[in-house]
């Protein structure tokens, strides 16, 4: 008799985005003449750059010729792409070997799957608020998760834990708060992890939005991080690959935990990927290679600058209105403190009814998000301007 994985019943129904859609639809149906504007999406909106498109076309054309056709590639990724990713780290003074890089079809899958190489008895901690994947995948696998509060007075980053923790998820720049960890803050966690033989899983999906040169774009810029950290990243937000699908994970040879020799964890992730995954699309990997060329990087940076221009408009607009807003300086997300102690969902309704703008209730990212509201800089400029104009004009606070 087949039995289900009962951990699925431990997970509350995925509520946030379906509830947003439900409330938005209900409002639109009862107000047919009103145009609803969106500042809530965590998805890219601008087209791929010419260099990336040429890379993807090259990938397609190679498949059309018997001399260049390739079928299955290496599950770990195209050697040239792994090399190019390693080179990109070198540009920031970080020495990563191409064999420490595992190419995948995205950072969501990697942050979801990485827990499978660690035992169920590990104590897991996540930032509160956080990207829901870290919590949900650990619950589904049968673990419980501790929340590390990210208080305003610590710039929305957690304090170093003072209890036993084995696996620590960190995301910087953070989704949803837009906060970026300093080298000193990361250093505190790296020291903790080395002292306790713990492992940090570091999600750097938004690293290319960091404008401040003093902020680390990779945790490996911190001494000792290669001994204790797995870093995940993606072409989704940096190059507009949200629908194209390409990411990578670095599992350093030096990474080790109690009773396990160096290289073992790298070999385990290799085994996991070669067993459960058959490699990213060869077409898409050509696109990724193109994105990493100097021309590709320059073009992608222009699009990031465009989104960050949206962030500036949102921040200035809300600040002028007297609202308190964090983030949005080195990240595409802005984290608004909701005035008058309203709850996140009550403010969602108020914003929709008064300004006709849809944002994301902070409480959807964990209990620590209650009382906050996430606004996103992804979107077309004219829509952002219109939405902010409406908030300035119509929202009562
Ligand atoms: C968007 C996002 C990712 C990227 O996921 P992909 O699967 O590569 O598209 C990863 N982590 C966070 C926190 C994100 O917001």
Question: What are the salient characteristics of this protein?
Answer:
single chain, 397 residues, alpha/beta, Aspartate Aminotransferase, domain 1, Aspartate Aminotransferase, domain 2, 2 domains, seven-stranded mixed sheet, four-stranded antiparallel sheet, 12 helices, globular, binds pyridoxal-5'-phosphate
Can you offer a commentary on this structure?
With 397 residues, this protein is α/β, with parallel strands linked by helices. The protein has two domains: 13-42 and 296-394, Aspartate Aminotransferase, domain 1 (Alpha-Beta Complex), CATH 3.90.1150; 50-292, Aspartate Aminotransferase, domain 2. Helices cover 38% and strands 14% of the residues. It contains twelve helices and 13 strands. The protein has helices spanning 16-30, 50-63, 79-90, 107-113, 133-140, 183-196, 236-239, 264-276, 282-291, 294-320, 344-355, 381-394, and strands spanning 37-38, 101-104, 124-128, 145-149, 167-171, 199-203, 229-234, 247-250, 324-327, 333-337, 357-358, 360-361, 372-376. Strands 2-8-7-6-5-3-4 form a seven-stranded mixed beta sheet, with helices on both faces. The protein has a four-stranded antiparallel beta sheet with strand order 9-10-13-12. Helix 2 packs antiparallel against helix 9 (282-291), helix 4 (107-113) runs parallel beside helix 5 (133-140) and helix 10 runs parallel beside helix 12 (381-394). The chain is globular, with a radius of gyration of 21 Å. The N and C termini lie far apart (59 Å). Bound molecules: pyridoxal-5'-phosphate (PLP).
